[in-house]
Write a structure and sequence with these properties.
The protein is α+β, with helices and mostly antiparallel strands and about 260 residues long. Helix 4 runs antiparallel to helix 6. The radius of gyration is 19 Å and the shape is globular. Bound molecules: adenosine-5'-diphosphate and magnesium ion (MG) (2 copies). The site of adenosine-5'-diphosphate has 21 residues, from strand 1, strand 3 and strand 5.
């Protein structure tokens, strides 16, 4: 079947580096989905599909529903996240309360922990790739840069988005802890309202990521709790071995204190 046989295509939901994402509706069931269309010749499509299928068992991962192929493109029919992107919500909100940040970060860490347990490094954790459902639950999307790695294996080669990239990605080998760093950059943005590392040029930004001492004494940080600062420091450490894992983040006192307890 061609995608047009099974789905009615609708408005554009987003545009990425290689392809576009459109709303679509099943002609059979009437259910709405998001369709990511990627031009052929992109070898990485197969990997993206394979990894999404591999990770399909977790509620925090955008589910891949079906895949179509035609002469020019692949079409990935995915679960629709009608709440949009976390980045857009952050732009509106400015900065988040400790309570709201902790609840978002907990859900993000649970899905990152799952990816890591499944042997996957996402490599592009940022709020443009974190989507929201109608009820406001987060879903991790965009596995276009994700890699499967065996235990103890490491990756090399620059990947990700400049402001979120871990220092070890800039200088050499890296692994799953690079995702933790990126998530820490996001946590800083949630709590403080600005990115921790900035620069007027790409070089200046990378220099800041590699060597700038984080300062939590600025006026902006005054309202950030001691526990949150402690967690940020444990994540945004350049010593990869010392940087905490997803599991350790989840049991950090800040998480325990500020997330909702569920029975
Ligand atoms: P790229 O690899 O090109 O960055 P993404 O997978 O991140 O592509 O998708 C690009 C944009 O499309 C996202 O930032 C988001 O706005 C939108 N989008 C992607 N997947 C979905 C989805 N499942 N539901 C709703 N919108 C989506
Ligand atoms: Mg993306
Ligand atoms: Mg991508």
């Amino acid at each position: 079947n061609k995608i047009e046989d099974d789905y009615v295509m609708g408005e554009a939901l987003g545009k990425g580096k290689f392809g576009s994402v459109f709303l679509c509706r099943s002609k059979v069931t009437g259910v709405e989905f998001a369709c990511k269309t990627l031009p052929k010749g992109e070898e990485t499509v197969h990997k993206e599909v394979e990894i999404m299928q591999h990770l399909s068992g977790h509620p925090g991962v955008v589910t891949l529903h079906s895949v179509y192929e035609d002469a020019e493109s692949f079409h990935l029919v995915m679960e629709l996240c009608s709440g949009g992107r976390l980045i857009d919500e952050m732009m509106k909100e400015g900065r988040y309360s400790e309570h709201k940040s902790a609840n978002i970060f907990k859900d993000l860490m649970l899905v990152i922990q799952y990816c890591h347990d499944m042997g996957v490094v996402h490599r592009d954790i940022k709020p443009e790739n974190i989507l929201l459902t109608a009820s406001g639950k987060i879903k991790l999307a965009d596995f276009g840069l994700a890699m499967r790695i065996a235990n103890g294996q490491s990756l090399s080669g620059l990947a990700g988005s400049p402001a979120y990239v871990a220092p070890e990605v800039l200088t050499g080998d890296y692994g799953q802890k690079a995702d933790i760093w990126s998530a820490g950059v996001l946590l800083h943005a949630l709590l403080v309202g600005v990115l921790p590392f900035q620069g007027d040029s790409l070089d200046a930004l990378f220099e800041a990521i590699k060597s700038m001492q984080l300062d939590f004494h600025s006026e902006k940080c005054q309202s950030v709790s001691k526990l949150a600062r402690d967690l940020l420091e444990r994540i945004l450490t350049r010593d990869v071995a010392a940087r905490i894992t997803a599991e350790e983040v989840l049991s950090h006192p800040w998480m325990m204190f500020y997330t909702e307890r569920t029975l």
